[in-house]
Amino acid sequence: MLKELGRGMWTTLRSMFEKPVTIEYPEVKRPVRARFKGRHELKRYDNGLEKCIGCSLCAAACPADAIFVEAAENTDEVRFSPGERYASTYEINMLRCIFCGYCEDACPTEAIVLGDNYELSFTDRRQAIYPKEMLLEPVRGEGKTTPQKTEPGEFIRSIPLMENPKD
Amino acid sequence: MTEHLLLRHRDIPNIDQLDIYQQHGGFDAFRKAVTTMQPDAVIDLVKASGLRGRGGAGFPTGMKWAFTDKKNWPHYVVCNADESEPGTFKDREIMERNPFQFLEGVMITAYAVQANLAYVYLRGEFWQIASQLDRQIAELEAAGILGDKLFGADYSLRLRTHLGAGAYICGEETAMLESIEGKLGQPRLRPPFPPSFGLFGKPTVVNNVETLTNVPLIVARGAEWYRSFGTDKSPGVKVFSLSGCINRPGNYELPLGATFRELIVGRGLGVPFGHKIKAIMPAGASSSLIVATDEALNTPMDYESVPKVGAQLGSASVIVIDDSVDIRWLLDKTLHFFKHESCGKCTPCREGTYWMSHLAERIASDHAAQAEVDLLYSVASQIKGKCLCALGEFSIEAVLSGIERFKEDFVS
Amino acid sequence: MTKLVSLTIDGKQVTVPEGTLFVDAAKRVGIDIPVFCYHPKMEPVGMCRMCLVDVGRPMIDRATGQPVMDENGAPKIQFGAKLDTACTTPVSEGMVVIGASDKVKAARKDIVEFILTSHPLDCPVCDKGGECPLQNLTMAYGPGETRFLYDDKLHLAKQVPLGELIYLDRERCIQCGRCVRFQDEIVDDPVIGFFNRGRSLEIVTHSDPGFDSVFSGNTTDICPVGALTTADFRFGARPWELKSTSSICSQCPVGCNITFNVRREAASGGKTVIKRVMPRQNETVNEIWICDKGRFGYHYTESDDRLTTPLIRKNGELTPASWDEALGLVASRFSAAGEGLLTLGSGRLSNEDLFNLRQLTEGVKGKAALYTHMAGGDLTAQVGVAPGTDFGEMGKGTAILVAASDLYEEAPIWFLRIKQAAERGATLIVANARPTKLEAYASHVIRYRYGAEAETIAAMTVDRGPTTVAGHPSSVADASKAFAEAENAVILFGSDGLGLEGSQALSAACANLLVATRHVGRANNGLVGVWSRANDQGAWDMGLRPLTVDRRPELQSAKAIYVVAADPFGDDPGLLATFNLQPATFLVVQDLFLTETARRADVVLPAQAFTEREGAYTSGERRVQRFYPAAPARPDTWPDFAITAQIAQKMGSILEGRVPAAVFTQIAATVAAYAGLSYRKLAETNDQWPSVGSGVRRKGLYFSGTAYENKQGVGIHLPLSPTPLPPVNMQSFHLQGEGLLAVPVTCLYDRGQTVYPSALLHQRIGEVWVALHPADAERLGVVANSRVSLTLGGAEFDATARLDESVPQGVALIPRSMGIPINGPEAVEIRAGERVVL
User: Fold this and answer.
1) Stated pTM of the model
2) Residue A157 lies in a domain
3) pLDDT score for C568
4) Domain, as residue range, for C85
């Protein structure tokens, strides 16, 4: 009996010197894996133009019907994305979203990307609908925010010119 | 040297003057036809002569005339003087130098199919020939050879020239008809063929300049006489336009069935600068490339023999290619031409010539891998047999034959 | 009787009429041959080469002329060296067609690869993506990947406005020519064409303004790629997100079957809105076409100016009120008015609305009247076209008389169908005081002076009258002979230059002519009214009659007037004086907008638009067709029949006000011609040819992916009223006065309340105009396109003068609903205004 007790005490004693598996969230955050599927982000090109062209393919692919897209036409005066079409409305209902990532797969311009953020909480169901302003990533570096005034004829195509594979 | 039948101006100076032409029997044939012959008799005579279309297809001329729908009137005759095939310049010489014989041919044809109006459709670049023909038509009208109640018979005829705007496709007979009607020069769907549904929806005979220039002599001298020239199946004489790497390029009138050697060596005096003949394109840019072997050079140039060496006689515009020429360069030039001239109506030709031209450009500039040569060959085969008219089908002849028969040129 | 031939397509035996094309023959047995340029409504051209098939014909022994047999005794089949285009090759006896061999599959793959070399493949941003024949056929037959180098791709203009309504994307265009051929062959408005050649071949417009055709929208439907898009729908939605609702166009009496495509829209605050209007196949009505007014004119239903709450006049001002209060007030005043209640309804209402209106009015022994400037709806019910009538079948042996109607402007689809009937050999007689577009296809043109419409048609009955028109060397006598001798004959009468009185005389003359020539009571025979509104015929059938001169006392003695879907004061500001209306008359207006009449009303009731509710219209041909609710209704509005029923309820009588189907049941029980009809019957469809369908179900791989399918009813043609036709007394009608005569004409795009809210159409609508003969203009000192002022019926108006040699001298054409109120021919005074420097 004493032997069992001693073994138990030893286990306790030993675990006191082990590295704890828990972390002190939210002060400390665990980095996510490379393929983690968190909150969506709408990406921009380096010049700040939005990659999203409002094609609605993400909404079509979405198994939970969480995405609502509405498109409008760009002009050189008021340009959001390259080409003619941009998303004037882009909303994701995070309560519906199952983070399957089909929207990423469907996206022809790699505009929507499931990011690292998993801290989604709301106090109201309406807050669960993330509008475009929340989803768009901030402008980086030299880029300007949208809408931009652009040179005529510079961004006439939705999908920027591709290059042939070089090899 | 025997007498020229089509290039008669080479024997008779100033035959482009009406009085000179008439002194040499000019318009006797037309008068004979109108005053003494039934229209069907003229058709039968031309049938008997075995005359075949000189525009390229070699269709029996008399048979074509006989196909005109006799229940649908009026009839039209349209002479195809669009001569746009690269390497072809025979019609131009005939119209410039021997115009009255040509016009008489048009007029006899019109009589044979009882058309009261005939058009001469010339390519846009032939504007000076058109104005010359207009003058000559006016002369004929003044002389009472053209107009109403000709020679006292109940037959009236008017001639009109019509200038195209410079499109190769308008040499295709239905595109030409569209062009005369004032529409975009794009070929029509066939059937129906022009003899039943042609200009303005009426039966129309369309013939080449050279074909019609034969007609006055056939009417004047008879079918038997005409059959004494050429071969049994391809009777008559033909003007061969000789160009390319040759010492003496030009038009040569020879009987059909003369060999390539007779033309190239005998008349053209061979290739210059000691080069060797490498290939022959017997029908301009639309032609397959023939490897210039001895056998090929000894092939008689007629509608039956040329296919045996893998080409068509076509309009007989013989382009000689010597061993200084890279076939890749040749294909690039040819395809550029077809791309530029495709009318765009049917998909394979519009897109195919565009694609091939890009590939050929890369291949010719030595920037292409073997895979691209294979691709070019594959694209060309893909066009084959799918086009609306002959332009698309001909655009690949040089490509397929060039890649098949001159493999060594494509090894980089 | 056409000869039938049998052939084998992919092993299936087919028997079709001689001359049928392979594609169609194959479609009959359910085999789809892929096509791009071919369209069953147009002549084949064989351009795209997509439909290549292997065709074998029985070998014929040249010596005997008999088919050669193989060892099994079956005819030997000889296949051609090349593939044939299925869209251009007619069938012949014993043919064997193979559309599924490796050779054919390879050929199709090759063609798709060729087409895609120059196609931008920007499906994600393309409006056609999702219902695109090119997409569908690429998935079904394409190579999967291209060998074409991207660098070699052509880059062309993406946004070329052909006009203000239609945009061209030159990159997407595959040069199939469907749009060009549609404009040339089908509507004969050759305003677009090909330009340049080869890979540079492009579509251009020849007209100014660009793409000047009232049928232009149809080219976007038949475009097999997203090259042509409408300004209205550009980037509006993806096709798979749209919900479809069947409806009937309410712009003219043709009754085109349409589909409303709706979707929720953030820009409208999350409301479900109409995104586009598409034609819906009904081969006996509009085939698969609609006009641009029907396609783009629906925006009024979404206007922010719509009434949203009842209004009651308090202290001289219209102030919002509750339904209960408004209906209570209306009911009490209507009850008090009793016999003095006059109800004025228009053909914009559905049959159910009109039925309830009449029930309510007659319940208190009031009078219900139809607000219109055209008469003859009673005649069309008796001598109208009988069931089975189809303009699409008319051809040789049929005479069509179009009297006093500019069909291109009044009913474009009838213009189209009659033009085609004429091209098939029908004898077209066009009688009008001025040249109209339809005359180009007419075998007889009758020109009369304005005011002599009825006289002229009457002259046709008795075979006299030497009137000839320059360039058309035929007389009234020739025309009437041709009309009388035709096996079948139809008359369409309109209101070009006519008021109610003139129309009455004309319709009577037309009816008499039909009776006299025995062209009544049979299919493809009879009288058709080219009404100004969609359901004028239904209003007549529901028993409403126009306020003719002899009925004026009714208006003068009215104590309460109930105006529904009409704007009499807007159309004639002098009405108050003309009819001596008392200020004490209680005026109730039930409408969509605060019209001129509504501004004068004591109570205004907001109604629902036809897009928001159910109902049934009766077309000019007397085909009853059902429409369905497409968009959600505005809160606090009711459909007209329900408002009427609620008023009735408050007056103590019970009318059906819950569902229109129940009202329709009552109509079927009360109105003889509608006996036996029900909503269920109106929703029945039949097999139509050419069979179209949505590409989603692969049914439409045949020629398009666009949703034309009719799944909710083709409508039912009403039988003719059995009452024998009494000889109609034709009232003689003469114009009064001297000087310049103003006559009303209809133009397609006007400033009416159901058109003008579509901002897209403003350029086509243009300025308020008056058209004069140059000689008259010179006399008046008016120059072309200058402003003039005119005095009409005592009021002053400004307009732009159009000078047109086709206008008869001494006449000024004034368009209806363009701002100058004109109800019939009357004297006008025109003075040159300030000159406009152009």
Assistant:
1) 0.93
2) no
3) 86
4) 4-100
